[in-house]
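Amidase domain-containing protein, pasting as requested.
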Amino acid sequence: MLPSTWEAYSTRIDYETLAMTAEFKLAINSYLKQLVVSKMRSLKDLIAFNNKFSKLEKTKEYGQQFFLDAEATNGIGQKEKEAILNLAKMSRDGFEKLMEENKLDALLSPFSVASSILARGQYPGIIVPAGYDREGLPFGLCFGGLKGSEPTLIEIAYAFEQATKIRRPPSFKQ
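Structure tokens follow.
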């Protein structure tokens, strides 16, 4: 029996969160250690800085839960490896299968809805302007494809931009 769409989505999000928090901690610590002129050397340092300057960093408004969750991880263990393998399988059995079985050049989604699917499977994607909401804020459409489809995605996105000419330069309000 196939899981419901919601069950599959929830499972993917759980795997993504598990993998992403562990990967983020490793990557940000590696990056910060390489900086030449910075007192920030680890995620722990960033969290302490945000706590010390919480008003300036607006932690009450935006929080730093992801940082805290990532700091609580201990690298890539068995649980994280399994999550990464399951995400790769979901990419192959989901997105790749959809694209190949339907002979699609691109998958179109509003905003960045598909961005986590594309990112996790290391698939290319491009977001182009598609319109403006009632308050004048821009929104886009995401064109995603299989690995190696970048030239086709650029062609499709460019054709969409040329056909709609929807983008307008931003105007900044005081």
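Note for the archive: The longest helix spans residues 5-34.
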